[in-house]
Design goal:
Length: 350
């Protein structure tokens, strides 16, 4: 059994990751810790509660986290990717025309997922102390919360089983700049600080997530066979699929006869934890560029050269996914949610 805390900024693909983690019988989902990114912290926390309530994971608590990056200024939220509400305009009261600030919130008595009294960083520390060596942190948003937990508790790397994160790209072009993936771009200082820590870190970045595409027929399969969870994932994906098929590789694929499709970035981090042999990795000391034209770029020493600059000295190895059996990951995701939709293993369900 993998005990995990999922650090997330829901987010359409975050919803996929949350549903996947909750459904799989080998994962005990202890909590969601929320962070800014795909929307403001108010909306990502609200969306986390809404997703948990919808999929029946009401005993999985939520710890609200950082609203701004650790050093740099807050960047604009990508409502053109995830919709005005952050989850494809499916939140009650949301419409594509209605500004996010006007989206209708759930009534207080309709919310069942509990907000923890501790903030995300302190919740991570307290949980790691309670379950030393047992928790894997899975981060699928900007890494601000985990970097802050590490700042407050320098022994955190020794208290957890490891860190799996969705972010970065080595060979694949970035998705917010030619060099940067969104999570690293939104807080590159936090990402770089965590790659300097001495703990097992696995990066599941665009080099593999751009290969794992979920088609409209796959999403319809979920909608037809996976109850409320499947209907949420299909409905929330409509806006996201439209974004993907409007530009880039997905647009080209559709123009050549492929189905409309989108990447399922964050769910790939869950897959890497569950079926690691579906991924091929490269390892080496790694950095994230903090600012300038290359802000957010992931770089790795793949040759083991001796560099004169101190920037690369005494850095531990990071494991970066570079190839993937995409068909296997996709089918594992689909069958996990369809076969286990009513058997989630959240903290209150075990």
């Amino acid at each position: 059994m993998h005990k995990i805390i999922l650090d997330t900024d829901p987010g359409v693909d975050d919803a996929m990751a949350i549903a996947y983690a909750f459904a799989h019988p080998e994962i005990e989902l202890l909590a969601l810790t929320t962070v800014f990114g795909n929307h403001s912290i108010e909306f990502t926390t609200r969306n986390a509660q809404y997703i948990l309530d919808t999929i029946g994971a009401t005993n999985v608590s939520v710890a609200r986290g950082a609203s701004t990056p650790s050093v740099q200024s807050l960047r604009p939220y990508p409502d053109f990717v995830h919709g005005a509400d952050g989850i494809g305009n499916v939140y009650p009261g949301s419409t594509p025309q209605k500004p996010a600030s006007q989206a209708v919130a759930l009534d207080s008595d309709a919310r069942h997922a509990v907000i923890e009294d501790l903030d995300a960083a302190d919740f991570i520390i307290a949980s790691a102390r309670k379950h030393p060596g047992q928790i894997t942190l899975v981060a699928v948003g900007p890494l601000t919360n985990i970097a802050e937990a590490y700042r407050r508790e320098p022994e955190l790397p020794a208290l957890v089983a490891g860190l799996v994160l969705m972010g970065g790209a080595l060979d694949e072009p970035g998705n917010v700049t030619p060099l940067a993936e969104a999570n690293f771009f939104n807080d590159p200082h936090a990402a770089d600080a965590l790659l300097a820590a001495d703990w097992p870190v696995t990066v599941v970045g665009l080099d593999v997530t751009h290969q794992i595409m979920i088609s409209d027929s796959d999403l319809q399969r979920l909608g037809d066979q996976a109850g409320k969870t499947g209907r949420l994932l299909r409905q929330s994906s409509r806006f996201y699929v439209d974004f993907y098929t409007s530009s880039g590789a997905a647009k080209i694929a559709v123009s050549q006869g492929a189905e409309p499709q989108c990447a399922m970035h964050d769910a790939a981090a869950i897959a890497c934890l569950l079926i690691p042999d579906a991924f091929d990795m490269q390892s080496g000391p790694s950095r994230v560029v903090p600012d300038g034209v290359a802000a957010g770029q992931l770089a790795m020493d793949r040759k083991g050269y001796v560099y004169a600059t101190s920037h690369w000295q005494n850095r531990p190895d990071t494991h970066v996914c570079m190839a993937v059996d995409a068909a296997r990951v996709l089918e594992h995701f689909l069958t996990t949610i369809i076969d286990n939709q009513d058997q989630g293993t959240g903290a209150g369900q075990r």
